[in-house]
DNA sequence: CGAACGGCGGAAAGAGTTTTCCACCAGGGG
DNA sequence: CCCCTGGTGGAAAACTCTTTCCGCCGTTCG
């Protein structure tokens, strides 16, 4: 019946053994089966083309081989790098990755988590920065609690403050170190492409940058801080607004690389030369963007590694009582998009 | 027992109805349930926090809500763009995407397909070019036949010749059109970054380009055709070899954008200016690479759309007897990386 | 030499749904 | 007044495995 699928029972019958024995030979590992029967079963299974029904196994074992991966947008190289690490780690363990994309909708994130729960996913990696809004964070925390309460494991990338293991880049220090480097080049007037106001990651990078400026006694003109989408086009748009309003900055810091890319495009379109007219720096060191010219000065994050590490955390058996946090520091990578400000 | 999960039976008992009724209210749609009981059931389900067990449903219904997506490398923007389209289409249907990465190993591709079969995936999208090798293609075709024979559906992106629906870019014509444009600019001596010798996509683009040259009476110096990996680093390396051997070409065509990116980097490192010293063109129009400078002349493929379309094909109910092929044509996009050859 | 034991095979009880069939009830036509 | 019909609820089989428990056999210890 079952649309042509061979069942374990058929294999057992073909081999002349019981269901239990067939199961023990082909899947279960707990108990030994005698050489003779073992061979008969494997031969039958092979001959009939048996393939275990994963759903039935999940149901019977009450644990699946699924690992969830939730990202905002898989086409964004930031997330696809993380995804690459996650899949590598999961596939190493013989697990299967379920990919969900939120499109940056908190509601969708909850739905996905619930779907994964209904599939009894063994673990979930949640990538993508949280907003600072109380309400959605609380609901997400609830959903996470339910998930872990049911025996699932969760790890987050870049989302501190949730009740789960977390791999979190040191955004503040990375941005601060970058700021110090730029100050060292001689810059004093900065413009900031700050991203969305409510995005945690954006805010942390901003804060770190700002703190370093303050420490150096540098004021930041509020008109030089412009908010916009966390995307390439957001960077482009923000930069146009900045230029339209007129700016005295000699250096522009975009809180991520894709925004910086948009900024460079906008500057180019405006006939400005980087770094001669304006220095530009980003954050993340997206691999695909390493070939931009001029090369983008940025803060390198080991994105694939972060994905791998998150997956490892989520899959580790030693369920620590307290959520662990792995902090990863960024490394300032100096390229040609930044230079000393031209005199004047 | 079941690690805290609420079962349908508990809901039924709580609502004072039978299992069948509860199932009909909460999941099945075939039959009507009276208003009173319906409300009681939904109320109980909500109160107890019921969430259906997807594995049990898959088992009982004998069809799952999983859609497989197999790519070579999710960090490659080519694949992540396609993946973005596939996930969008799948999520629109309320389905869940299972992501598998092959690392370009044919063996791994077979394993993944088998895993997806064991999960009773409803459909699979297979992205990534095939090699021209008979043996692996045959085995893949076998596996695909088994899959579809069991009621699954498969669609391929960019892999003609398999027994499945296919979305295939018109690589030959795209490359030919690009060649004609370049010839129109005045180029006569071309160098080709040809990618791996055994990769179907690479070969088709090569052939199309070559055909257009021949049609224009242009000879291609075999020493100007260099093979290498289909990656950014492959492009870099191939270009270095080309330069080391010395070349008289005025225009370099890389069979995909990421190789072209590597080529531009290598040229830059060699102190050559694009397009003054050498024009460069690619293929794909990867979104993330649109901000390179100089802008890369290339052939645009609607990658996300191709992923969506493949998913739609794989999910369409009207299982046509014969595999369908959707051909998508590329559009030459002219940017600054190509120019007329400098006199001399 | 009897009893305890260790190893291995099988029967059967789940795991959580869906779905088929049957039963019941009210209403309408003969 | 009886029978058939249409609508609704329930009992139970099915889906495919895993795993517990039980029984059998041949050893080995006391």
What is the average of the pLDDT values of chain A?
A: 93
Major β-sheet strand ordering of chain A: 2-1-3-4-5-11
Number of domains of chain A: 3
User: Sheet bearing the most strands of chain A, described?
Assistant: 6 strands, parallel
Assign the CATH class of the largest domain in chain A: Alpha Beta
Structure summary, number of beta strands of chain A: 12
Shape of chain A: elongated
Largest interface: A-B, 58 and 58 residues
Order of helices and strands of chain A: HHHHEHEHEHEEHEHEHEHEEHEE
Through-space gap between termini of chain A: 83 Å
CATH architecture of the largest domain in chain A: 3-Layer(aba) Sandwich
Assembly level:
homodimer
User: Total number of helical segments of chain A?
Assistant: 12
Indicate the topology:
The structure is a homodimer of 344-residue chains.
Chain A (H helix, E strand, L loop, with lengths): L7 H8 L3 H8 L8 H14 L5 H8 L4 E6 L5 H16 L3 E6 L4 H13 L4 E5 L6 H16 L3 E5 L7 E5 L1 H15 L4 E6 L4 H16 L9 E3 L4 H14 L5 E4 L2 H13 L9 E3 L16 E3 L2 H13 L9 E4 L2 E3 L11
Parallel strand pairs in A: 1-2, 1-3, 3-4, 4-5, 5-11, 6-7, 6-8, 8-9
Antiparallel strand pairs in A: 10-12
Chain A binds a DNA duplex (30 and 30 nucleotides) through α2 and α4.
């Amino acid at each position: 019946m079952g649309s042509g699928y061979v069942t374990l029972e058929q294999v057992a019958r073909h081999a002349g053994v019981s269901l239990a024995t067939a199961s023990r030979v082909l899947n279960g590992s707990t108990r030994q089966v005698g050489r003779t029967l073992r061979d008969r079963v494997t031969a039958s299974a092979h001959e009939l083309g048996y393939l275990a029904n994963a759903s039935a196994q999940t149901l019977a074992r009450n644990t699946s081989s699924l690992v969830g991966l939730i990202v905002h947008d898989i086409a964004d190289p930031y997330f696809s790098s993380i995804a690459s690490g996650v899949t590598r780690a999961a596939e190493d363990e013989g697990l299967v990755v379920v990919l969900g994309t939120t499109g940056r909708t908190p509601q969708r994130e909850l739905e996905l988590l619930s779907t994964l729960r209904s599939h009894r996913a063994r673990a979930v990696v949640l990538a993508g920065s949280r907003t600072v809004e109380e309400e959605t964070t609380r609901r997400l925390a609830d959903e996470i609690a339910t998930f872990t309460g049911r025996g699932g494991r969760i790890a987050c990338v870049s989302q501190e403050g949730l009740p789960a293991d977390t791999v979190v880049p040191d955004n503040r220090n990375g941005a601060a170190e970058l700021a110090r480097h730029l100050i060292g080049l001689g810059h004093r007037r900065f413009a900031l492409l700050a991203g969305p106001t409510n995005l945690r990651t954006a805010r942390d990078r901003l804060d770190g940058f700002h703190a370093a400026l303050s420490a150096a006694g540098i004021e930041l003109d509020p008109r030089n801080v412009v908010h916009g989408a966390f995307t390439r086009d957001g960077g482009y748009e923000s930069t146009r607004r900045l230029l339209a309003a007129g700016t005295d900055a000699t250096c522009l810091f975009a809180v991520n690389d894709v925004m910086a890319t948009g900024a460079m495009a906008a500057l180019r379109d405006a006939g400005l030369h980087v770094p001669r007219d304006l220095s530009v720096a980003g954050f993340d060191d997206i691999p695909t963007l390493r070939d931009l010219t001029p090369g983008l000065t940025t803060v390198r994050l080991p994105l694939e590694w972060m994905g791998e590490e998150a997956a490892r955390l989520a899959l580790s058996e030693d369920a620590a009582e307290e959520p662990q946090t792995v902090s990863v520091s960024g490394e300032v990578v100096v390229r040609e998009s930044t230079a000393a400000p031209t005199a004047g």
